[in-house]
Specification:
This protein has 338 residues and is an alpha/beta fold. The protein has one domain: Alpha-Beta Barrel (TIM Barrel), CATH 3.20.20.30. 49% of the residues lie in helices and 17% in strands. The strands form two sheets. It has an eight-stranded parallel beta barrel, surrounded by nine helices. It has a two-stranded antiparallel ribbon with strand order 5-6. Strand 1, helix 1 and strand 2 form a beta-alpha-beta unit. Helix 2 packs parallel to helix 3, helix 8 packs across helix 10 and helix 8 packs across helix 12. The radius of gyration is 19 Å and the shape is globular. The protein starts with 5 loop residues before the first strand and ends with a helix. The mean pLDDT is 95.
Length: 338
């Protein structure tokens, strides 16, 4: 029987706190034991929803995925994540990433030293969570005589969002796990996880970091209905990710490696979407199988197994609309029956 990854639910600042609580409760009822909160600049900050979900659930892991140290100073991240972990009874995981570059720059920050910023932020946060007094003079941050006024859990897991080669290497060296964004195929994930583990071994680590993959999810008994909905989810993201791919080699590799799609295929699909064609006309089934977990129970298990084989340890799934609770129950049952 094929190995399957852990399931979690991706929530985000585009949802009200009430909607996040509804999905978190539905996920827990479906046997999905973790949520991640994606925070993007100018949307709702995630702390309100994360706090509400920590109180509304009993067993779920509560993940911040991700905070960026431009909008939140590392000392503030440590203060908030330690307190949220205290409230939840030790269920919190922390994700750190450089954020959306264009949005970060609109706030007046430079992203030229994004990786250095992440490395320094993680070092500061870990020291604060251990209860150390931090005296740190780095390239980006200067923190002197700073110590948390309360005892936080020292071993809160810290994940790092990564896609480019240097970021994946850094995650392998210093993070407890790596978070891979939406629109990354299993072929790309396999290469990223291999590089992650190579970097961890080179750094002398014996426990390998995990890999969390963000993906849209539309599980339905009716395969055709599920694929139509999944194509709409991909269509909402594909143009922006294709634009990013023109600037970042890693973003392009994520769309192409092992997906069966060529640059010409994606460019043509994006042009058709921009011209107003419906998603289920502009996109064929390859886009569903490359970038989503969708279809009937067998389809979902098969697609998820491909990511497990690539080394992905957890799929953080985005569910859509009023059918989200039923969809969670369906995939939860499908995975429990494996």
């Amino acid at each position: 029987m094929a190995k399957l990854p852990r399931l979690s639910v991706r929530l985000h600042g585009g949802m009200t706190p009430q909607a996040c609580v509804e999905q978190a409760r539905a996920a827990e009822a479906a046997g999905i034991d973790a949520v991640w909160f994606a925070e993007n600049p100018f949307a709702r900050g995630i702390m309100t929803a994360a706090t509400a979900c920590a109180l509304a659930t009993r067993t779920q892991s509560i993940g911040a995925g991700v905070f960026n140290p431009f909008g939140r100073h590392p000392t503030l991240i440590a203060m908030e994540i330690g307190a949220l972990d205290e409230l939840s009874g030790g269920r919190v995981r922390l994700g750190i990433g450089s954020g959306l570059g264009h949005a970060v720059e609109r706030m007046g920050f430079s992203t030229r030293r994004a990786l250095t910023t992440l490395r320094e932020a993680i070092e500061i946060i870990r020291a604060l969570l251990r209860g150390d007094e931090v005296n740190f003079t780095g390239t980006v941050f200067n923190v002197q005589k700073v110590k948390l006024d309360y005892r936080a859990r020292a071993d809160i897991p810290i994940f790092m969002a990564a896609r480019g080669d240097n970021a994946v290497k850094a995650a392998g060296e210093i993070a407890d796990g790596m978070i891979v964004s939406n629109m990354c195929g299993a072929g790309f994930a396999a290469k990223a996880v291999a590089a992650l583990h190579d970097a961890a071994r080179a750094a002398g680590r014996t426990a390998m970091p995990g890999a969390v993959q963000y993906m849209p999810c539309v599980p339905r008994p009716d395969r055709a209905e599920a694929f139509r909905s999944a194509k709409r989810a991909v269509a909402d993201m594909l143009p922006a990710y294709w634009t990013l791919a023109q600037k970042l080699p890693g973003a392009k590799a994520a769309l192409l490696d092992g997906t069966g799609l060529s640059e010409e295929d994606i460019a043509a699909a994006v042009a058709r979407l921009k011209a107003g064609e419906a998603a289920d006309v502009a996109l064929d089934d390859r886009y569903v199988t490359a970038f989503t977990i969708a279809g009937n129970a067998d389809d979902c298990r098969e697609l998820a197994a491909a990511y497990a084989a690539a080394g992905v340890t957890e799929l953080a799934l985005t569910f859509f609309g009023p059918t989200a609770p039923a969809d969670m129950a369906y995939i939860g049952k499908a995975f429990a029956a494996r």
